[in-house]
Amino acid sequence: MTTRVNTGPGRLLVAVYGVFALAASARAGVQIATKFSEAPLAYSLSAFAALVYIVLTVALARGNGRLALAACLIELAGVLVVGTLSIVDSQAFPHATVWSGFGSGYLFVPLVLPVIGLVWLFRTRRLGQV
């Protein structure tokens, strides 16, 4: 039996990433439109996170495992780098981003989600479907 990236648990990943794409896009849009000058780095990073979530949602929904893999790795790196910097150099992040504090504002889902996504993608790759 083979498994595609957009079937079974992959559908749940599409749904969760879709929710995060919508939430991060709305958050970044409001922040950039209303108070960008207060924290341009933080709000730009929120917009970048939203873009990554959009790409991941589309890649998973269309079954594009390679693009999803690349986006998942970018997401994980972003969460780890921004999470670390937001703790080590809090002055650089006067306002929170989606990935600040390793996604603490989103119950750490941004930290756990790419790990789950990578496990799913590698599982489906082993089955020859990525």
UniProtKB/TrEMBL annotation:
Organism domain of life: Bacteria
Keywords: Membrane, Transmembrane, Transmembrane helix
Transmembrane segments annotated in the record for this chain: 44-61, 68-88, 100-122
Protein name per its UniProtKB record: Integral membrane protein
Organism per entry: Herbidospora solisilvae
High-level lineage: Bacteria, Bacillati, Actinomycetota, Actinomycetes, Streptosporangiales
